[in-house]
Amino acid sequence: MKTLSIGRLNYDINIVMDTYPVEGTINATKEIVSCSGGSASVVAYALGKWNMESFISGVVGYDEMGNTMKKNMEENRVKTTYLETNYDIKTPISYILWNKQNSKSTTINTELDTLNIKKYEYDQAMDCIIVDGYEYNASTYAFGKFSNAISILNAKIPRKELLDYFKVVKYVVCTGEIAEEMTGTKMDFANPITMATVYKKIIDKYPHINLLITIPEKGTIYSVNNEIKVLASMNTEVVDKNGAQDVFVSMIAYGLTNGYDIETTIRLATIAESMAKKTIGSTLSIPILSDIISYYESKFGKLENQDKKSTIPENTPKIENTNNTEQKTTSPTIEQEVKPEPVPEEMTINPFAGTLPQTEPLATTEDSNSNQDVTTSR
Fold it and tell me: Does residue 207 register a pLDDT over 60?
């Protein structure tokens, strides 16, 4: 299966500090973690690591960072056929300052508005296309050329251009922040009707899309057979959240391309996202496929696609970075059951129990937008 990740690329420099520096002081650190960054990079890395034929389309500068990124991609099974080098610019850098005291980070990005893909006559048929909302011309060209491919928008940062993508993609994974901004309605996990209202407002406007709304530390709102549901997040120790949603989206792409149903795919993505939060570095924290599958199968039994045939190789190889410019890492295996964070009982779908509880849906997508008409569980 061939996948194409389209979007902005940057190089991450993670500076780890014992505490946040005071303005005007001189500080030192022995911990700096550098790696390729950007949503498109994380998705391409993940899918390559998970044995997909993964292509990336984006732009890097003609400099040390750009050359390093290209080399690291190729060493991690990412095909750089459609990677462009712009000789007139420098590769964008994200400086990420980590405060070990409270596990929070501050990011400073170097932005270049002119960093756009110029060559996007993709000559290989793709099974899945994942975009981050930055390269509209290249993205829509790919959607049109490969109209039968699965198309996914990874909507993380509010931008007015995102709405144009909603019109042309088949799947949208967006943050709660974007969903609230689009609808002008706040979501409250203690009040399920607010989540159903937000979800339905977006679906009513874009009825052709399959919508997933991710709410950090809470869960994912989605729908199956016109029923709106919530899958709870995992409670886990968080070291680095950067890139976690990108790993989630990567597993959505992996699951759909391999023929898994949407609920199985979201469970896999939830597990992968949780594992990705345990290591600093967005492309360094991508979990090993066999670890994700092993954890899933320990809770649900053999992982099979909708044709009842397993698509997981018996011996999935573990891939580590071989380039000295990036930290070598392997992703940890979660060995014990991690309970999802509690949410109101009537909307909880526990992805880590042996058997899913028989709960009522949060609402149906056919209900009216008015709050009094939304049906919730009793």
Answer: yes
